[in-house]
Amino acid sequence: MRKWTIFLFPVIIVFILLSFGFKPVKVSVPEALRVNGPTKVLFPNHKTILIKTRTLTAPPFLGTSYNGFKEALAFKESQGNYFTTNAFGYLGKYQFGIGTLELLGVYNATRFLNDPILQEKVFQTNLSRNKWILRRDIKRFVGKEINGQEITESGILAAAHLAGAGNVKKYLRSYGKENVNDNYGSTVSYYIKKFSGYDISHVAPIRNPRIQKI
């Protein structure tokens, strides 16, 4: 009898624990912490990730939207830093030169460098200006291939940001023979390829747009 008691006692204990110790606990998540839809930025801005032995800096992931276009271009220009000036005097997140700023109605470089909202306005204003200048070339060349690369509107306008609309016209109309580059060696063809396929169709072409009251 004692042997059966010794055997049954731990079995009874386990049965009791299983009956009371493993019931699911209901947790209430505060409304402020709930995620009810997709977030705008799907990857942390300027997050550093380690892949094996290499460290890479990742830009924000925003897909092929207008925001994706401008953030990818900004990352290439300055890694998205509003407050930087490069060795050649180009300013801010999108690396604008003084001449372009004055053309758009901005004459105070210090204010521009310290005003992210103004920098975003200048970027879109310049995009509208380039889209007006290149409107015929966009209509003529989008969908065609030059140097093995399909031409897209976003690629054309990214290249115009790099080298100016005039040099992009030369590249397109020479079918890739006149391929200028900037001081760091980036070419018109490189930007056309790297920034192809973004949807910036909502950006209106505007003749001689300017930032007001700066």
Which descriptors would you attach to this protein?
Lysozyme, 2 domains, two-stranded antiparallel ribbon, 9 helices, 4 strands, 44% helix, extended
What does this structure look like?
The protein has 2 domains: 2-33, no CATH class; 47-194, Lysozyme. The protein is 44% helix and 7% strand. It has 9 helices and 4 strands, in the order αββαααααββααα. The strands form 2 sheets. It has a two-stranded antiparallel sheet. A hairpin with a 2-residue loop joins strand 1 and strand 2. Helix 7 (153-163) crosses helix 8. The longest helix has 19 residues, at 2-20. The radius of gyration is 28 Å and the shape is extended. The protein starts with a helix and ends in a 20-residue tail after the last helix. InterPro entries: Lysozyme-like_dom_sf. This is Peptidoglycan-binding protein LysM. It comes from Arenibacter antarcticus.
Topology:
Layout: H1 2-20, E1 47-51, E2 54-58, H2 66-78, H3 98-103, H4 109-113, H5 116-133, H6 135-141, E3 145-146, E4 149-150, H7 153-163, H8 165-173, H9 188-194
Antiparallel strand pairs: 1-2, 3-4
Helix pairs in contact: 7-8, 7-9
